What we know:
alpha/beta; Rossmann fold; 2 domains; seven-stranded parallel β-sheet; five-stranded parallel β-sheet; 14% strand; binds 2-keto-D-gluconic acid; glyoxylate reductase (NADPH) activity; D-isomer_2-hydroxyacid_DH; NAD binding
Amino acid sequence: MSAPRPAILIARAVFPEIVEQLREHFEVEHNPDDVIYSKAELTQRLQGKAGAFTTGGDRVDGEVLAANPQLRIVANMAVGYNNFDIAAFNAAGVWATNTPDVLTESTADFGFALMMAAARRMAESEHFLRRGEWKKWAYDMFAGGDVHGSTLGILGMGRIGQAIAKRGHHGFGMKVVYHNRSRLPAETEAAVGATWVDKATLLAQADHLVLVLPYTPENHHCIAAAEIAQMKPTATLTNIARGGIVDDAALAEALRAGRIAAAGLDVFEGEPALNPALLTVPNVVLTPHIASATVATRRAMAQLAADNLIAVLGRGAAPLTPINAGPFTPRA
Ligand code: 8YV
């Protein structure tokens, strides 16, 4: 008699063909109605499961892992993994995986588009047009700031930051400055056309500041009132990283007061709720966490998460894109 197939939970609705593919390998419990599970419900549904397919909203910490000693891998369909307590994964010997690389270019495209939309006041002017307020041309109507030839500032310089730098440097003739804990090798800096500066210089020099750093306790509100005060009054701020990196209340107030020109936000503190003050200021472009959302990229992300589950639970191999750090002994 063959051994029973491992059981997995797909915690959110995903592409039906990915569910079918996973059914070829595993006993699958999935969530076609896309119900948002509480931590208690997620913990309970994981009972008896060897693997889980999660997305960025599913919090997996030491309690969830301790209550599920049979769990061997949690595959996140996201490159960011601030929803995982990685120290707890390491201590428990549970593989944690993410989906790097496959979303880099699409996410960089979106970050650049959001920055341009903020700089050129696209959302604000579209709302004006839809309200029927466009009666005549005017010399200063929705005049914004130039992107080409200006200074692009990037906070966080991983794969996505580098892809945005390339777009700015090679495509738009921008001067690109960045700040990151670790400086890139000189040849990488040259390839993406970016120069390392300290954070204060980044804030002071950027005409357009784009945030692409991971969310950790250390960088909670690393852009708040004091940092915004160091920016140019003509600057824009774009956040495609994570809510919580920016103090949204301070940003809304700065936008209202004209302390910076505009912002583009794809991520929010406490999303999908957002600070109501952001809805009342016109000079901010708001999108619902869709920077990686092209059909091809979302498919590739789902496929990579599925491939990680298949590697570990189907073939007994290491996952393709693990995020466990330090000494790690996987659970048997
Ligand atoms: C996801 C993201 O859409 O990959 C990430 O880190 O933020 C997005 O691409 C989101 O996290 C859902 O999993």
